[in-house]
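User: Earlier you gave me the apo prediction for this protein. Now I'd like the version with flavin-adenine dinucleotide bound, so I can compare the two side by side. Same sequence as before, with the ligand SMILES added.
Assistant: Got it. Here's the input I'm using:
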Amino acid sequence: MSVAGLASGGIGARWWGWGDAPDGHVDGRLDEILNLLGAPPRPPPAAGADQLAPPASRLLETARGALLRHAEVDVSALGRSLACFGSAYPDLVRRRRGEASPAPDAIVRPHTADGVIGTLRACADYDLAVVPRGAGTSLVGGADASGIGQRSGLVVIDTTGLRRVLDVDPISRRATVEAGVPGPVLEAAVREHGLSLGHAPGSFERSTVGGWVATGSASADAGGDGSIRQLVTGLRLASPVGMLELHDAPLGGEGPDLTGLVIGSEGTLGVICEVTLRLRRRPGAQAGCGLLFRSFADGLVALRRLAQDGLVPLAARLCDEDETRLWMHAAGAEDAARGARTRLAGRGAPGALLLLADAGSAGTPGRRIEAAVAACAAEAPIELGDEPARRWVALPARDAWLRDALIDAGVLVDTVETAGSWKVLPALREAVVAALVGALGNPALVTSRVAHATPDGASLAVTCFAPAAEGAELERWRAARSAALAAILGQGGQIAHANGIGSHSARWLARARGRTAAGLLRALKSELDPVGMMNPGKLVAEGA
Ligand SMILES: Cc1cc2nc3c(=O)[nH]c(=O)nc-3n(C[C@H](O)[C@H](O)[C@H](O)COP(=O)(O)OP(=O)(O)OC[C@H]3O[C@@H](n4cnc5c(N)ncnc54)[C@H](O)[C@@H]3O)c2cc1C
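And here is the structure of the complex with flavin-adenine dinucleotide:
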Protein backbone atom coordinates (compact mmCIF):
# COMPACT_ATOMS: atom_id res chain seq x y z
CA MET A 1 0.00 0.00 0.00
CA SER A 2 1.21 3.49 -0.77
CA VAL A 3 0.50 6.65 1.19
CA ALA A 4 1.73 9.80 -0.47
CA GLY A 5 3.12 12.82 1.25
CA LEU A 6 3.56 14.15 4.71
CA ALA A 7 5.82 12.29 7.04
CA SER A 8 5.39 8.98 5.25
CA GLY A 9 9.03 8.88 4.31
CA GLY A 10 8.31 10.72 1.10
CA ILE A 11 6.05 10.69 -1.89
CA GLY A 12 5.15 7.19 -2.99
CA ALA A 13 6.74 5.45 -0.02
CA ARG A 14 5.14 2.33 1.29
CA TRP A 15 3.91 3.48 4.67
CA TRP A 16 5.87 0.87 6.58
CA GLY A 17 8.81 0.53 4.20
CA TRP A 18 10.71 1.92 1.27
CA GLY A 19 8.27 1.13 -1.52
CA ASP A 20 7.91 -1.20 -4.42
CA ALA A 21 10.88 -2.07 -6.58
CA PRO A 22 10.61 -1.24 -10.28
CA ASP A 23 8.60 -3.75 -12.33
CA GLY A 24 10.33 -7.01 -12.80
CA HIS A 25 13.21 -6.34 -10.39
CA VAL A 26 13.95 -9.58 -8.59
CA ASP A 27 16.79 -9.69 -6.10
CA GLY A 28 18.41 -13.09 -6.10
CA ARG A 29 19.81 -12.46 -2.62
CA LEU A 30 16.36 -12.95 -1.09
CA ASP A 31 16.15 -16.68 -1.81
CA GLU A 32 19.77 -17.19 -0.89
CA ILE A 33 19.31 -15.55 2.52
CA LEU A 34 16.07 -17.44 3.20
CA ASN A 35 17.78 -20.73 2.30
CA LEU A 36 20.64 -19.97 4.65
CA LEU A 37 18.26 -19.09 7.47
CA GLY A 38 16.04 -22.11 6.88
CA ALA A 39 12.95 -20.14 5.75
CA PRO A 40 11.81 -18.51 9.03
CA PRO A 41 8.06 -18.32 9.81
CA ARG A 42 6.40 -15.42 7.98
CA PRO A 43 4.88 -12.69 10.16
CA PRO A 44 1.24 -11.68 9.76
CA PRO A 45 0.63 -9.14 6.98
CA ALA A 46 1.28 -5.49 7.87
CA ALA A 47 -1.60 -3.58 9.43
CA GLY A 48 -3.41 -1.24 7.05
CA ALA A 49 -2.72 2.49 7.37
CA ASP A 50 -6.44 2.91 8.11
CA GLN A 51 -6.00 0.80 11.27
CA LEU A 52 -3.56 3.25 12.83
CA ALA A 53 -4.99 4.80 15.99
CA PRO A 54 -2.63 7.21 17.72
CA PRO A 55 -3.47 8.58 21.17
CA ALA A 56 -5.60 11.72 21.05
CA SER A 57 -3.74 14.96 20.35
CA ARG A 58 -3.05 17.00 23.48
CA LEU A 59 -2.65 20.21 21.53
CA LEU A 60 -4.70 23.02 23.08
CA GLU A 61 -6.91 25.03 20.72
CA THR A 62 -5.05 28.17 21.74
CA ALA A 63 -1.70 26.53 20.88
CA ARG A 64 -3.09 25.41 17.53
CA GLY A 65 -4.21 28.95 16.84
CA ALA A 66 -0.75 30.28 17.69
CA LEU A 67 0.96 27.73 15.42
CA LEU A 68 -1.46 28.41 12.56
CA ARG A 69 -0.18 31.99 12.41
CA HIS A 70 3.17 30.64 11.18
CA ALA A 71 2.57 27.31 9.47
CA GLU A 72 0.16 24.62 8.28
CA VAL A 73 -0.93 22.41 11.18
CA ASP A 74 -2.04 18.78 10.79
CA VAL A 75 -3.61 16.99 13.75
CA SER A 76 -5.16 14.14 11.74
CA ALA A 77 -4.72 10.60 13.05
CA LEU A 78 -3.07 9.47 9.82
CA GLY A 79 -0.65 12.40 9.62
CA ARG A 80 0.39 11.98 13.25
CA SER A 81 0.71 8.18 12.93
CA LEU A 82 3.00 8.43 9.94
CA ALA A 83 5.31 10.82 11.79
CA CYS A 84 5.82 8.53 14.80
CA PHE A 85 8.91 6.75 13.53
CA GLY A 86 11.75 6.91 11.04
CA SER A 87 12.99 4.16 8.73
CA ALA A 88 15.15 1.89 10.91
CA TYR A 89 14.37 -1.82 11.26
CA PRO A 90 12.54 -1.43 14.61
CA ASP A 91 10.52 1.43 13.11
CA LEU A 92 9.37 -0.76 10.26
CA VAL A 93 8.44 -3.57 12.66
CA ARG A 94 6.38 -1.20 14.80
CA ARG A 95 4.71 0.30 11.76
CA ARG A 96 3.80 -3.16 10.45
CA ARG A 97 2.28 -3.99 13.83
CA GLY A 98 0.08 -0.89 13.50
CA GLU A 99 1.73 0.89 16.45
CA ALA A 100 1.25 4.65 16.47
CA SER A 101 2.66 5.68 19.82
CA PRO A 102 4.37 7.81 20.97
CA ALA A 103 2.75 10.09 18.39
CA PRO A 104 3.27 13.81 17.92
CA ASP A 105 0.39 16.04 18.93
CA ALA A 106 0.63 17.87 15.62
CA ILE A 107 2.66 18.11 12.45
CA VAL A 108 3.56 21.72 11.75
CA ARG A 109 4.77 22.71 8.31
CA PRO A 110 6.20 26.24 7.93
CA HIS A 111 7.01 27.57 4.47
CA THR A 112 9.61 30.20 5.35
CA ALA A 113 12.50 30.61 7.77
CA ASP A 114 10.50 33.32 9.57
CA GLY A 115 7.66 30.81 9.86
CA VAL A 116 10.07 28.41 11.56
CA ILE A 117 11.17 31.07 14.05
CA GLY A 118 7.53 31.91 14.80
CA THR A 119 6.68 28.23 15.19
CA LEU A 120 9.53 27.72 17.67
CA ARG A 121 8.39 30.74 19.68
CA ALA A 122 4.84 29.37 19.84
CA CYS A 123 6.17 25.94 20.86
CA ALA A 124 8.18 27.55 23.69
CA ASP A 125 5.12 29.53 24.84
CA TYR A 126 3.04 26.34 25.06
CA ASP A 127 5.78 24.11 26.54
CA LEU A 128 5.97 21.84 23.50
CA ALA A 129 8.93 19.64 22.56
CA VAL A 130 9.95 19.89 18.89
CA VAL A 131 11.21 17.18 16.57
CA PRO A 132 12.51 18.53 13.24
CA ARG A 133 11.77 16.09 10.44
CA GLY A 134 12.77 16.03 6.78
CA ALA A 135 11.79 12.88 4.90
CA GLY A 136 11.93 10.63 7.97
CA THR A 137 14.54 8.29 6.44
CA SER A 138 16.62 8.25 9.65
CA LEU A 139 18.06 4.83 10.42
CA VAL A 140 18.91 5.66 14.05
CA GLY A 141 15.68 6.96 15.60
CA GLY A 142 16.65 10.60 14.95
CA ALA A 143 13.22 11.73 13.76
CA ASP A 144 11.15 9.63 16.19
CA ALA A 145 8.38 11.49 17.99
CA SER A 146 9.86 10.46 21.32
CA GLY A 147 11.35 12.43 24.22
CA ILE A 148 8.35 14.43 25.44
CA GLY A 149 9.44 14.02 29.09
CA GLN A 150 7.44 16.29 31.40
CA ARG A 151 6.48 18.74 28.63
CA SER A 152 2.88 19.49 27.71
CA GLY A 153 3.10 18.07 24.20
CA LEU A 154 5.33 17.33 21.22
CA VAL A 155 5.14 18.61 17.68
CA VAL A 156 6.98 17.57 14.58
CA ILE A 157 8.24 20.43 12.41
CA ASP A 158 7.99 19.04 8.90
CA THR A 159 10.64 20.86 6.86
CA THR A 160 9.34 19.76 3.48
CA GLY A 161 7.44 23.07 3.23
CA LEU A 162 10.87 24.76 2.90
CA ARG A 163 11.53 23.64 -0.64
CA ARG A 164 12.83 26.59 -2.67
CA VAL A 165 16.12 26.64 -4.50
CA LEU A 166 17.12 30.19 -3.58
CA ASP A 167 20.23 30.74 -5.66
CA VAL A 168 22.54 28.92 -8.04
CA ASP A 169 25.85 30.72 -8.56
CA PRO A 170 27.70 29.11 -11.49
CA ILE A 171 30.65 31.51 -11.06
CA SER A 172 31.56 30.34 -7.55
CA ARG A 173 29.86 26.97 -8.08
CA ARG A 174 27.53 27.33 -5.12
CA ALA A 175 23.83 26.71 -4.54
CA THR A 176 21.74 28.03 -1.66
CA VAL A 177 18.65 25.96 -1.00
CA GLU A 178 16.01 25.63 1.67
CA ALA A 179 16.36 22.67 3.97
CA GLY A 180 13.36 20.64 2.79
CA VAL A 181 14.64 20.34 -0.77
CA PRO A 182 15.05 16.65 -1.67
CA GLY A 183 18.03 15.37 -3.68
CA PRO A 184 16.39 15.16 -7.14
CA VAL A 185 15.00 18.73 -6.93
CA LEU A 186 18.44 20.11 -6.07
CA GLU A 187 20.13 18.17 -8.86
CA ALA A 188 17.50 19.27 -11.42
CA ALA A 189 18.04 22.94 -10.47
CA VAL A 190 21.83 22.85 -10.84
CA ARG A 191 21.88 20.53 -13.86
CA GLU A 192 20.85 23.36 -16.17
CA HIS A 193 24.12 25.11 -15.23
CA GLY A 194 26.12 21.99 -16.05
CA LEU A 195 26.71 21.41 -12.32
CA SER A 196 26.03 18.72 -9.75
CA LEU A 197 26.27 18.45 -5.97
CA GLY A 198 27.79 14.99 -6.28
CA HIS A 199 26.31 13.86 -2.97
CA ALA A 200 23.86 10.99 -3.16
CA PRO A 201 23.22 8.92 -0.04
CA GLY A 202 21.25 5.71 -0.62
CA SER A 203 18.08 7.60 0.37
CA PHE A 204 18.79 10.39 -2.17
CA GLU A 205 15.40 10.14 -3.92
CA ARG A 206 13.56 11.15 -0.74
CA SER A 207 15.87 12.55 1.92
CA THR A 208 16.31 16.31 2.27
CA VAL A 209 19.30 18.63 2.25
CA GLY A 210 18.45 19.64 5.84
CA GLY A 211 18.42 15.98 6.87
CA TRP A 212 21.80 15.44 5.22
CA VAL A 213 23.36 18.36 7.06
CA ALA A 214 21.65 17.56 10.37
CA THR A 215 22.98 13.98 10.29
CA GLY A 216 26.33 14.63 8.58
CA SER A 217 25.38 12.21 5.80
CA ALA A 218 27.89 10.41 3.61
CA SER A 219 27.60 9.50 -0.03
CA ALA A 220 29.22 6.30 -1.23
CA ASP A 221 30.29 7.73 -4.59
CA ALA A 222 31.56 11.19 -3.68
CA GLY A 223 35.22 10.36 -3.12
CA GLY A 224 37.15 10.33 0.17
CA ASP A 225 34.94 10.20 3.23
CA GLY A 226 31.95 11.26 1.08
CA SER A 227 30.74 13.57 3.83
CA ILE A 228 28.35 16.46 3.33
CA ARG A 229 30.72 18.35 5.67
CA GLN A 230 33.08 18.97 2.74
CA LEU A 231 30.28 20.66 0.80
CA VAL A 232 28.64 23.04 3.27
CA THR A 233 29.96 26.61 3.18
CA GLY A 234 27.18 28.33 5.11
CA LEU A 235 23.75 27.82 6.68
CA ARG A 236 20.93 29.40 8.65
CA LEU A 237 19.70 27.69 11.78
CA ALA A 238 16.45 28.76 13.45
CA SER A 239 17.02 28.12 17.15
CA PRO A 240 14.69 28.81 20.08
CA VAL A 241 16.75 31.94 20.87
CA GLY A 242 16.75 33.26 17.32
CA MET A 243 18.36 32.83 13.92
CA LEU A 244 22.00 31.72 13.82
CA GLU A 245 23.40 33.07 10.54
CA LEU A 246 26.56 31.29 9.46
CA HIS A 247 27.16 33.04 6.17
CA ASP A 248 28.87 31.58 3.15
CA ALA A 249 32.54 31.39 4.20
CA PRO A 250 34.30 29.28 1.60
CA LEU A 251 37.73 29.42 3.21
CA GLY A 252 36.80 29.48 6.90
CA GLY A 253 39.34 31.17 9.15
CA GLU A 254 36.96 33.24 11.25
CA GLY A 255 37.73 31.46 14.50
CA PRO A 256 36.42 27.97 15.33
CA ASP A 257 34.24 26.32 12.71
CA LEU A 258 30.70 27.07 13.95
CA THR A 259 29.12 25.62 10.81
CA GLY A 260 30.83 22.36 11.71
CA LEU A 261 29.08 22.41 15.10
CA VAL A 262 25.68 22.48 13.42
CA ILE A 263 26.52 19.71 10.96
CA GLY A 264 25.58 16.47 12.70
CA SER A 265 23.58 18.23 15.46
CA GLU A 266 20.51 16.13 14.56
CA GLY A 267 17.85 18.74 15.27
CA THR A 268 18.98 19.24 18.87
CA LEU A 269 20.04 22.89 18.38
CA GLY A 270 17.32 24.15 16.10
CA VAL A 271 15.92 23.79 12.61
CA ILE A 272 18.30 24.21 9.69
CA CYS A 273 16.40 26.45 7.26
CA GLU A 274 18.90 27.16 4.47
CA VAL A 275 22.18 25.68 3.34
CA THR A 276 24.84 26.90 0.90
CA LEU A 277 26.62 24.05 -0.83
CA ARG A 278 29.65 23.62 -3.09
CA LEU A 279 28.92 22.24 -6.56
CA ARG A 280 31.12 20.52 -9.07
CA ARG A 281 31.05 20.20 -12.83
CA ARG A 282 28.48 17.64 -13.89
CA PRO A 283 30.34 14.47 -14.93
CA GLY A 284 30.01 13.52 -18.57
CA ALA A 285 31.52 10.06 -18.42
CA GLN A 286 31.59 7.08 -16.09
CA ALA A 287 33.73 4.01 -15.74
CA GLY A 288 33.96 1.14 -13.31
CA CYS A 289 35.45 -2.24 -12.61
CA GLY A 290 35.00 -5.22 -10.33
CA LEU A 291 38.05 -6.99 -8.90
CA LEU A 292 37.86 -10.33 -7.15
CA PHE A 293 40.60 -10.83 -4.56
CA ARG A 294 41.54 -14.14 -3.00
CA SER A 295 40.43 -12.88 0.39
CA PHE A 296 39.06 -9.85 2.20
CA ALA A 297 42.47 -9.34 3.83
CA ASP A 298 44.13 -9.06 0.40
CA GLY A 299 41.46 -6.64 -0.78
CA LEU A 300 41.92 -4.50 2.30
CA VAL A 301 45.66 -4.16 1.69
CA ALA A 302 44.97 -3.12 -1.91
CA LEU A 303 42.25 -0.63 -0.95
CA ARG A 304 44.47 0.99 1.66
CA ARG A 305 47.24 1.37 -0.88
CA LEU A 306 44.82 3.00 -3.34
CA ALA A 307 43.65 5.46 -0.70
CA GLN A 308 47.11 6.32 0.56
CA ASP A 309 48.56 6.74 -2.94
CA GLY A 310 45.70 9.01 -4.05
CA LEU A 311 44.40 6.43 -6.51
CA VAL A 312 41.04 5.59 -5.03
CA PRO A 313 38.26 6.59 -7.47
CA LEU A 314 35.05 8.35 -6.44
CA ALA A 315 33.50 5.09 -5.22
CA ALA A 316 35.18 2.01 -3.82
CA ARG A 317 33.48 -0.74 -1.85
CA LEU A 318 35.19 -3.88 -0.63
CA CYS A 319 32.84 -6.74 0.30
CA ASP A 320 33.90 -9.50 2.67
CA GLU A 321 33.67 -13.10 1.48
CA ASP A 322 30.07 -13.66 2.67
CA GLU A 323 28.88 -10.38 1.23
CA THR A 324 30.63 -11.23 -2.03
CA ARG A 325 28.80 -14.56 -2.18
CA LEU A 326 25.48 -12.77 -1.60
CA TRP A 327 26.33 -10.03 -4.06
CA MET A 328 26.85 -12.62 -6.77
CA HIS A 329 23.18 -13.48 -6.38
CA ALA A 330 22.03 -9.87 -6.64
CA ALA A 331 20.12 -8.89 -9.73
CA GLY A 332 21.13 -12.02 -11.62
CA ALA A 333 24.73 -13.04 -11.03
CA GLU A 334 26.98 -12.35 -13.98
CA ASP A 335 28.42 -15.44 -15.56
CA ALA A 336 31.89 -13.90 -15.60
CA ALA A 337 31.81 -13.26 -11.88
CA ARG A 338 30.54 -16.75 -11.17
CA GLY A 339 33.29 -18.21 -13.32
CA ALA A 340 35.95 -16.18 -11.54
CA ARG A 341 34.64 -17.25 -8.18
CA THR A 342 34.70 -20.86 -9.21
CA ARG A 343 38.32 -20.46 -10.28
CA LEU A 344 39.20 -18.98 -6.92
CA ALA A 345 37.23 -21.65 -5.09
CA GLY A 346 39.29 -24.23 -6.94
CA ARG A 347 42.31 -22.70 -5.20
CA GLY A 348 40.52 -22.83 -1.85
CA ALA A 349 39.87 -19.06 -1.82
CA PRO A 350 36.32 -17.78 -1.30
CA GLY A 351 36.90 -14.42 -3.01
CA ALA A 352 36.26 -10.84 -1.93
CA LEU A 353 34.83 -8.33 -4.38
CA LEU A 354 36.13 -4.76 -4.74
CA LEU A 355 33.80 -2.50 -6.70
CA LEU A 356 35.35 0.61 -8.19
CA ALA A 357 33.44 3.38 -9.96
CA ASP A 358 34.39 6.83 -11.17
CA ALA A 359 32.82 9.77 -12.98
CA GLY A 360 34.22 12.92 -14.54
CA SER A 361 35.01 14.52 -17.86
CA ALA A 362 35.46 12.29 -20.90
CA GLY A 363 38.45 9.96 -20.62
CA THR A 364 39.28 10.76 -17.00
CA PRO A 365 37.23 8.05 -15.24
CA GLY A 366 38.55 5.34 -17.54
CA ARG A 367 42.15 6.40 -16.87
CA ARG A 368 41.56 6.58 -13.12
CA ILE A 369 40.03 3.12 -13.03
CA GLU A 370 42.91 1.73 -15.08
CA ALA A 371 45.42 3.29 -12.70
CA ALA A 372 43.56 1.87 -9.71
CA VAL A 373 43.41 -1.61 -11.22
CA ALA A 374 47.13 -1.48 -12.04
CA ALA A 375 47.92 -0.48 -8.45
CA CYS A 376 46.16 -3.63 -7.18
CA ALA A 377 48.41 -5.95 -9.22
CA ALA A 378 50.47 -7.08 -6.23
CA GLU A 379 47.44 -8.90 -4.79
CA ALA A 380 46.67 -10.49 -8.19
CA PRO A 381 42.87 -10.05 -8.26
CA ILE A 382 40.75 -11.42 -11.10
CA GLU A 383 39.31 -8.61 -13.23
CA LEU A 384 35.56 -8.87 -13.74
CA GLY A 385 35.15 -5.96 -16.18
CA ASP A 386 32.72 -3.10 -15.72
CA GLU A 387 29.47 -5.07 -15.35
CA PRO A 388 29.53 -5.49 -11.52
CA ALA A 389 30.20 -1.77 -10.99
CA ARG A 390 27.54 -0.81 -13.54
CA ARG A 391 24.94 -2.90 -11.71
CA TRP A 392 26.02 -1.46 -8.37
CA VAL A 393 25.57 2.13 -9.53
CA ALA A 394 22.34 1.45 -11.43
CA LEU A 395 20.11 0.45 -8.48
CA PRO A 396 21.03 2.50 -5.42
CA ALA A 397 17.83 1.57 -3.54
CA ARG A 398 18.46 -2.16 -3.99
CA ASP A 399 19.17 -2.77 -0.31
CA ALA A 400 16.03 -0.89 0.78
CA TRP A 401 13.79 -3.07 -1.39
CA LEU A 402 15.57 -6.18 -0.18
CA ARG A 403 15.04 -5.13 3.42
CA ASP A 404 11.28 -4.78 2.86
CA ALA A 405 11.09 -8.21 1.23
CA LEU A 406 13.11 -9.77 4.05
CA ILE A 407 10.90 -8.26 6.75
CA ASP A 408 7.87 -9.59 4.84
CA ALA A 409 9.53 -13.00 5.00
CA GLY A 410 10.15 -12.92 8.77
CA VAL A 411 13.82 -11.87 8.75
CA LEU A 412 15.50 -9.45 11.16
CA VAL A 413 17.83 -7.28 9.08
CA ASP A 414 19.94 -4.41 10.34
CA THR A 415 23.18 -2.66 9.49
CA VAL A 416 25.61 -1.33 12.07
CA GLU A 417 27.91 1.39 10.80
CA THR A 418 31.27 2.33 12.19
CA ALA A 419 34.62 3.65 11.00
CA GLY A 420 38.19 3.29 12.11
CA SER A 421 41.81 3.74 11.17
CA TRP A 422 43.39 1.17 8.87
CA LYS A 423 45.25 -0.18 11.88
CA VAL A 424 42.10 -1.03 13.84
CA LEU A 425 39.81 -2.00 10.94
CA PRO A 426 40.60 -5.75 10.70
CA ALA A 427 40.11 -6.38 14.43
CA LEU A 428 37.12 -4.03 14.52
CA ARG A 429 35.41 -6.02 11.78
CA GLU A 430 36.10 -9.34 13.44
CA ALA A 431 34.81 -8.09 16.78
CA VAL A 432 31.56 -6.63 15.40
CA VAL A 433 30.84 -9.71 13.30
CA ALA A 434 31.52 -11.99 16.28
CA ALA A 435 29.33 -9.85 18.56
CA LEU A 436 26.40 -10.03 16.17
CA VAL A 437 26.79 -13.75 15.57
CA GLY A 438 26.97 -14.27 19.33
CA ALA A 439 23.89 -12.15 20.03
CA LEU A 440 21.74 -13.65 17.28
CA GLY A 441 22.77 -17.30 17.62
CA ASN A 442 22.28 -19.90 14.94
CA PRO A 443 21.10 -19.49 12.21
CA ALA A 444 22.36 -16.02 11.40
CA LEU A 445 24.26 -14.51 8.52
CA VAL A 446 26.55 -11.54 9.13
CA THR A 447 28.27 -9.78 6.21
CA SER A 448 30.41 -6.66 6.02
CA ARG A 449 31.89 -4.13 3.64
CA VAL A 450 34.44 -1.33 3.76
CA ALA A 451 33.95 1.96 1.91
CA HIS A 452 34.75 5.71 2.11
CA ALA A 453 38.46 4.93 2.00
CA THR A 454 40.72 7.83 3.01
CA PRO A 455 44.46 7.83 3.69
CA ASP A 456 43.79 7.37 7.45
CA GLY A 457 40.97 4.88 7.55
CA ALA A 458 37.61 3.84 6.18
CA SER A 459 34.01 3.12 7.09
CA LEU A 460 32.79 -0.35 7.96
CA ALA A 461 29.18 -1.47 7.61
CA VAL A 462 28.12 -4.81 9.08
CA THR A 463 24.73 -6.26 8.13
CA CYS A 464 23.04 -9.06 10.01
CA PHE A 465 20.23 -11.36 8.91
CA ALA A 466 18.48 -13.74 11.33
CA PRO A 467 15.01 -15.16 11.94
CA ALA A 468 13.00 -12.28 13.42
CA ALA A 469 11.23 -14.21 16.21
CA GLU A 470 7.67 -12.95 15.82
CA GLY A 471 6.67 -10.81 18.81
CA ALA A 472 10.23 -10.52 20.14
CA GLU A 473 11.79 -8.72 17.17
CA LEU A 474 12.60 -5.53 19.05
CA GLU A 475 14.27 -7.26 22.01
CA ARG A 476 16.36 -9.35 19.61
CA TRP A 477 17.30 -6.28 17.59
CA ARG A 478 18.23 -4.33 20.75
CA ALA A 479 20.42 -7.16 22.06
CA ALA A 480 22.24 -7.44 18.73
CA ARG A 481 22.82 -3.68 18.43
CA SER A 482 24.07 -3.34 22.01
CA ALA A 483 26.51 -6.20 21.49
CA ALA A 484 27.79 -4.59 18.28
CA LEU A 485 28.20 -1.15 19.87
CA ALA A 486 30.05 -2.63 22.85
CA ALA A 487 32.38 -4.42 20.44
CA ILE A 488 32.97 -1.19 18.52
CA LEU A 489 33.87 0.71 21.68
CA GLY A 490 36.13 -2.13 22.78
CA GLN A 491 38.11 -1.91 19.54
CA GLY A 492 38.44 1.87 19.28
CA GLY A 493 35.96 2.27 16.42
CA GLN A 494 33.43 5.07 15.99
CA ILE A 495 29.91 4.36 17.31
CA ALA A 496 28.50 6.00 14.19
CA HIS A 497 29.64 7.08 10.78
CA ALA A 498 27.11 8.57 8.36
CA ASN A 499 23.68 7.83 9.78
CA GLY A 500 24.17 9.77 13.01
CA ILE A 501 23.53 8.92 16.65
CA GLY A 502 19.78 9.51 16.99
CA SER A 503 18.01 7.93 19.95
CA HIS A 504 19.45 4.47 19.25
CA SER A 505 23.03 5.33 20.20
CA ALA A 506 22.48 8.46 22.34
CA ARG A 507 23.35 6.72 25.59
CA TRP A 508 26.60 5.46 24.02
CA LEU A 509 27.89 8.86 22.97
CA ALA A 510 29.16 9.94 26.39
CA ARG A 511 30.96 6.58 26.73
CA ALA A 512 32.52 6.97 23.30
CA ARG A 513 33.61 10.60 23.52
CA GLY A 514 33.99 11.09 27.25
CA ARG A 515 32.11 13.19 29.78
CA THR A 516 33.90 16.43 28.92
CA ALA A 517 32.90 16.20 25.26
CA ALA A 518 29.31 15.30 26.18
CA GLY A 519 29.28 18.28 28.58
CA LEU A 520 30.48 20.57 25.78
CA LEU A 521 27.64 19.42 23.56
CA ARG A 522 25.19 20.03 26.39
CA ALA A 523 26.60 23.52 26.94
CA LEU A 524 26.22 24.34 23.26
CA LYS A 525 22.65 23.09 23.38
CA SER A 526 21.76 25.10 26.44
CA GLU A 527 23.04 28.28 24.74
CA LEU A 528 20.77 27.84 21.71
CA ASP A 529 18.00 25.85 23.36
CA PRO A 530 17.91 26.92 27.04
CA VAL A 531 14.70 25.05 27.88
CA GLY A 532 15.79 21.84 26.15
CA MET A 533 12.83 21.64 23.78
CA MET A 534 14.71 20.61 20.61
CA ASN A 535 14.65 16.91 19.76
CA PRO A 536 15.05 15.74 23.38
CA GLY A 537 16.80 12.42 23.92
CA LYS A 538 18.54 12.43 20.54
CA LEU A 539 22.32 12.67 20.08
CA VAL A 540 23.06 13.04 23.81
CA ALA A 541 20.78 11.04 26.11
CA GLU A 542 19.02 13.15 28.71
CA GLY A 543 20.86 12.70 31.99
CA ALA A 544 23.85 10.99 30.33
C1 LIG B 1 17.28 3.26 2.13
C2 LIG B 1 18.13 4.20 2.93
C3 LIG B 1 19.43 4.45 2.52
C4 LIG B 1 20.23 5.34 3.26
N1 LIG B 1 21.49 5.60 2.82
C5 LIG B 1 22.26 6.50 3.47
C6 LIG B 1 23.58 6.82 3.00
O1 LIG B 1 24.03 6.31 1.98
N2 LIG B 1 24.29 7.73 3.69
C7 LIG B 1 23.78 8.36 4.79
O2 LIG B 1 24.47 9.21 5.35
N3 LIG B 1 22.56 8.06 5.27
C8 LIG B 1 21.78 7.16 4.63
N4 LIG B 1 20.51 6.87 5.11
C9 LIG B 1 20.03 7.52 6.33
C10 LIG B 1 19.21 8.81 6.06
O3 LIG B 1 18.65 8.79 4.78
C11 LIG B 1 20.06 10.04 6.22
O4 LIG B 1 20.38 10.18 7.59
C12 LIG B 1 19.43 11.35 5.74
O5 LIG B 1 20.39 12.37 5.82
C13 LIG B 1 18.20 11.76 6.53
O6 LIG B 1 17.50 12.78 5.81
P1 LIG B 1 15.95 13.06 6.09
O7 LIG B 1 15.57 14.26 5.31
O8 LIG B 1 15.15 11.85 5.83
O9 LIG B 1 15.99 13.39 7.64
P2 LIG B 1 15.09 12.78 8.81
O10 LIG B 1 15.19 11.31 8.82
O11 LIG B 1 13.75 13.37 8.73
O12 LIG B 1 15.84 13.37 10.08
C14 LIG B 1 17.12 12.88 10.44
C15 LIG B 1 17.67 13.72 11.60
O13 LIG B 1 17.93 15.03 11.16
C16 LIG B 1 17.12 15.98 11.85
N5 LIG B 1 16.69 16.95 10.85
C17 LIG B 1 16.12 16.71 9.65
N6 LIG B 1 15.94 17.87 8.99
C18 LIG B 1 16.39 18.84 9.80
C19 LIG B 1 16.50 20.26 9.69
N7 LIG B 1 16.09 20.92 8.60
N8 LIG B 1 17.01 20.95 10.72
C20 LIG B 1 17.44 20.33 11.84
N9 LIG B 1 17.37 18.99 11.99
C21 LIG B 1 16.86 18.27 10.99
C22 LIG B 1 16.01 15.18 12.50
O14 LIG B 1 15.56 15.77 13.69
C23 LIG B 1 16.71 13.86 12.76
O15 LIG B 1 17.47 13.94 13.93
C24 LIG B 1 19.70 5.96 4.41
C25 LIG B 1 18.38 5.71 4.81
C26 LIG B 1 17.61 4.83 4.09
C27 LIG B 1 16.20 4.58 4.53
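For your comparison, keep in mind: Residues 1-12 have pLDDT under 50 and may be disordered.
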